[in-house]
Amino acid sequence: MLKKWMFTFVLLLVLPLSVVAQDIPERPTTAGFVFDYQNVIDDAVEAEINEIAKRLQEEGKMELMIVTVPTIGELEPYEYGMKFFREWGIGDAEKDNGMLIYITTDMGEGNNVVRISTGYGMEGSYPDSETQRLIQTYMKESLKSGDYTSAFANVVEAIRVKEDIDYTWENDGAVIEEMSENTEESEETLFEKITGIFFTIIGILFFLIMAGVALLIAYVVLEGIFRRLQGLFYWIFEAIFRKDIRSKGYIKYLENKKQEQKKNKARKASGLYYDNHYDSSNSSDSYSYGSGDSGGGGSDDRF
């Protein structure tokens, strides 16, 4: 009787953990790159996505996996993606060039997950900003409307264009072709916008710097001219009227300035002059920063 109660107690402890730790599907034994467990991708388009993924692998670009599942349970999207990478071994062992794109279908509107996970070797070409762009530009709207086929076809086409893989779609040709053209145009437009903004900022900074330099030069020149005219006026007035009209304060200021200049010369000559200049290369307060590994990356969103 005691053993029965102990077994029941242990079962109650383990059962919640098994619910929270959502299992992923077992590693497939059949060849392929698309595993539509929820049967939401059109079969003909699925076959073409498989073909593109095959060519990506054959040309050493990446190992792309497409998966649809009902839910990720209580796991975070990145944790669920990591489980796939570990248990399926996605990507070449040496290149670590795996990419996983998965979605959930049964977590409810606004809670379903789309995630793109990448291996270490993909972070150069597909940093988090790029994987987020792929989701937002090519998948999000189609997923929200329930068009899973277009979502996967569009993102795979964007990857095909980026990786320069030769392939012509047979199914949904007009949609894919239009998307492909928009992909190239959007990339060009984005580059043009960034370039335009960059040169605009550079132009503004250059104008401000030149305006500042011009104002400084004008100030120095005008101040010198004013001082000379002022001195000339004082000299003429004193020569005519035999009287120095300069204020006592101004005269004292000139005398103090001359004395300070003499003191500075004397200090420099004796080596006691203090130059208040900070040299960062000789400072003991400078910092050196290290860098670390972030591991595989990726991005996700809800729909």
Q: Major β-sheet, in short?
A: 5 strands, mixed
Query: How would you classify the quaternary structure?
Result: single chain
Number of strands: 5
Which descriptor suits the 3D outline? Answer: rod-shaped
Q: Look at the helices and sheets and give the structural class.
A: alpha/beta
What is the tally of helical segments? 8
| CATH architectural arrangement of the largest domain | Roll
Q: Give the strand order, joined by hyphens, for the main sheet.
A: 1-2-3-4-5
Helix proportion of residues, in percent? 55-70%
Distance between the termini: 50 Å
- The fold-level CATH name of the largest domain is Diaminopimelate Epimerase, Chain A, domain 1
InterPro entries: TPM_dom (IPR007621)
Pfam families: TPM_phosphatase
Protein name: TPM domain-containing protein
Keywords: Membrane, Signal, Transmembrane, Transmembrane helix
Describe this structure in words.
- Residues 278-303 are annotated as: Disordered.
- Residues 278-291 have a biased composition (Low complexity).
- Residues 1-21 form the signal peptide.
- It comes from Ureibacillus endophyticus.
- With 303 residues, the protein is of the alpha/beta class.
- The protein folds into 2 domains: 2-171 and 297-302, Diaminopimelate Epimerase, Chain A, domain 1 (Roll); 201-270, no CATH class.
- It is built from 8 helices and 5 strands.
- It has helices spanning 2-20, 43-58, 77-89, 128-138, 140-144, 148-163, 173-241, 248-270, and strands at 34-36, 63-69, 98-104, 113-118, 298-302.
- The chain has a 5-stranded mixed beta sheet.
- Helix 6 crosses helix 7 (173-241).
- The longest helix is centred in the last third of the chain and has 69 residues, at 173-241.
- The model is unreliable at 7-11, 14-20 and 273-295 (pLDDT under 50).
